[in-house]
Amino acid sequence: MLDVILKNGQIFDGSGKDPVIGNIGIKDGTIVEIGKGDLKDAIELIDVSGLAISPGFVDMHTHSDFTLMVNGRAESQVHQGVTTEVVGQCGISCAPANNDLDIRQMAIGYCDNSHELGWKTFGEYLSALESNKLGVNVAAFVGHGAVHNKVLGNELRAPNNDEVIKMSEIISDSLDQGAAGFSSGLEYWPGNLATSQNLVSMCKKVSEKNKIYATHVRNRDDHYDLGFTEALTTARQSGVRLQISHIQPKYGAPKYAVEHTLKMIDSFRKLGVDVAFDIIPHTWNHTRVLSILPQWAQEGGTTSVIKRLKNSEERKKIRANPQPMWLLVRDNKWDDIVLIHSNKNPDLIGMTFNEIGNLRNQDPYDAAFDLLIEEGEDMGNLLWSSKAFREEDIIMCLQQPECAVISDTTALAPYGVLKNNIGSISGYGWAARFFQNYVNEKKVLTLTEAIRRITSLPAERLGLIKRGKLKKSYYADICIFDSQKIKNNSDLKNLKAYPSGIEHVLVNGIFSVKNGKRTELDGGNVLREFH
């Protein structure tokens, strides 16, 4: 007898093939029957006539490394059909670490007294995560920033040759312990200290393990071509498989930047470089407020940063930075920048920095500095978002068959310790918005192709075993939704609204969402094995 039969649904297997009307039989967490056969004998039979049956969505770029420790139910993700997350992106991971302070400084969404720390190696981190009940499957990349901190701490310099060897060994060990790949965030501290040749040496270790190197490139505005060329050259020299994270250029890049970048990628492919990329399906770009500070201002950890920010002369030097990470800041576009997370000032979340400055009777730049000071040791969790991407660029990227779709957010819950956390403007609705905006409204992609971009494409790229497609013997990670009614309901005034149209979500055959409601069940696993 089967555990579950999903009957009369429109089956999109994730491969890009046309859908068929049929049934899916599930037993012991896997798909055992699929197609037009008449399945009757099951503990539970659910008629899904008129609904799309899709593989569960694979979000290959998130920052839920710590929030899943706090609340593993992944409410914001499961409610929109996500069944697998890939954490540890942009060079930011919770391991390896020398001590708990390292974890606290690296963990996006860190919450005081919310979870016991204590891990040091990557394998220990995965084991700690594994001890939680998880609403989604989790794969994890090891981040360059964490590895740098493990070896050099907060020193303002690139590693020497011996230190690069140590870092490379730690990366190799982390991959052996279950990391799905290696990531870098070259616009961030300490990624911006890494030299290209350092990265080549590290990526050779990743290539040896046949894992992915995912990079947030060094620049995506004025010097976008240098940023993308560095990533491509690193892959060419090391032989690593390259994933360019959230490839769309930012405010300040020329209008032809995407077209030029795609041509560069094509030319490197002709040289044998294995490269793919992904996009965030909206025009908002989010990051840590701390990232706006120049390199020298971030040396020495939070205590040193606070001391500098309290010094009026040091503030002047910071503001004089001609090339901040966001050119919107340089150009005083404060109406386009919104606070999305603050532990100490949650009442300001959702306000623009012009509004915050007016409220505090100060310049918006000074308001940003003061908010960092007020966050104290947790200043790394002060987050903002900006209108930095162009819709035309997103569409051009989506027209490329190798373009995956990601959230670049964190798994959250509108209750408990995480209730005030916001990972991004569309953290609660990014997947729904992807279908609503680019399939139903703008018709950039067919539904069949859109499902592939968010299921089998990332699963195959990552080497996930028996996930990303609806096939016999595959794990029953499944999303069942109304393709016409799927809708993002979150916006600046209501950032924590769940989407519409998601009827059922199964993770390893267990119903996480049933009849549109979250169940008490959590079927996720930590993924350590890849092919």
Structure description:
- Helix 8 links the parallel strand 10 (about 210-215) and strand 11 (about 240-245).
- The radius of gyration is 22 Å and the shape is globular.
- It has about 525 residues and is α/β, with parallel strands linked by helices.
- The model has no long low-confidence stretch (mean pLDDT about 95).
- The protein has 3 domains: about 1-55 and about 470-520, Roll (Urease, subunit C, domain 1), CATH 2.30.40; about 55-285 and about 390-460, Metal-dependent hydrolases (TIM Barrel), CATH 3.20.20; about 290-385, no CATH class.
- It is built from 19 helices and 20 strands.
- It has helices spanning about 65-70, 75-80, 100-105, 120-130, 145-150, 160-175, 195-210, 225-240, 255-270, 295-300, 300-310, 310-320, 325-330, 355-360, 365-375, 390-400, 430-440, 445-455, 455-460; strands at about 1-10, 20-25, 30-35, 40-45, 50-55, 55-60, 80-85, 135-145, 180-185, 210-215, 240-245, 275-280, 285-290, 335-340, 385, 405, 480, 500-505, 510-515, 515-520.
Features:
531 residues, alpha/beta, Urease, subunit C, domain 1, TIM Barrel, 3 domains, 9-stranded mixed beta sheet, 8-stranded parallel beta sheet, 32% helix, 20% strand, globular
